Description:
Elements: E1 5-13, H1 17-28, E2 38-44, H2 51-60, E3 66-70, H3 76-86, E4 89-95, E5 99-101, H4 105-115, E6 119-130, E7 156-157, E8 168-172, H5 173-179, H6 197-207, E9 211-224, H7 231-252, H8 257-276, H9 282-291, H10 294-329
Parallel strand pairs: 1-2, 1-4, 2-3, 6-9
Antiparallel strand pairs: 4-8, 5-9, 6-8, 7-9
Helix pairs in contact: 7-10, 8-10
Amino acid sequence: MSKAMDISVVICTYNRSETLKLTLESFLRMEWDNQTKHELIVVDNNSTDDTKQVIMGYIKNNFDTLKYVMETMTGLSYARNKGIEEANGKIVAFADDDVDFDRRWGQEIVDAFQANPDAGCLGGKNIPFFIEGKPEWIPEELYYIYGDVGFGDEVKILKFPEHPYGLNMAFKKEVFEKVGLFNPELGRKKLSLLSGEESELFYRVNQLGMKTIYTPFAVVKHLIPPNRTGKEWILKRVYWGGISEVVFEQLISTKSKKLILKEMIQDIGALKKGILGNYFSPKKIYWHIKRLRFEQWAHYCYKLGIIRQKCLEIFTIRVQKNCSNINAGN
């Protein structure tokens, strides 16, 4: 029989054994109240490195609250759903495989739910920590791509579309019985930066009128390696953010092909105006582009992702209608 727990912490991982070690070490340093029963579930999403050996090494060294689980279906949503399935806790908390836990992180989550018994979901404070120092040219307004929710230093109720980020969020397990699991159509898969699975889940939470709170006392540092501070990676990340926004919107409220086309034309016009300005002279256009800040280029890449996905949605909608007609004819 499974042992009842107060909280199950789920970490999903794929081919990041080195950072996972740092995360596991910080979990081992965590401080819990004596009465709090907890477990850590690491879901290996079919890694090809030494992830399994690393985890089994910790288990052999008396990390008795650690459980190793394999999920062969590729994708973060599949891995998270596996973690929920394996969890024995009344609370299921999620963290990424590249965080440094505050010593009281887990207990603060338990305490926050006890202090807010009507809350079904919770998010904590995420602090980006640049391993080799933050490049001066990265503005704070882009910190959200590193998990900074920007909700401040006070406990607050989150109003959708506000919601916690996946590197530091928790749910009463009963929530999943009511709203369902993470949508496997969304979420990262290997090198893909598609997201939106958290927004879609919290949309369902909001539709059922469930309460989500934020506590600044459940803190993690998000470890940012140098390869995620380059301009190319940042622009790719925000581009995929634009794609994810459209995919999410189509899941919750399917727009007509005509409306998507109208919006896409408006988006293209706004993008053109942003990059070229209102100029016709090549010289003025050149100097206008030269003056653009990096955060503006990031915004334009985000818009480009939106345009790209809207273009695909126009075609996809047509194909889906054709397929439904074929099926109906059978």
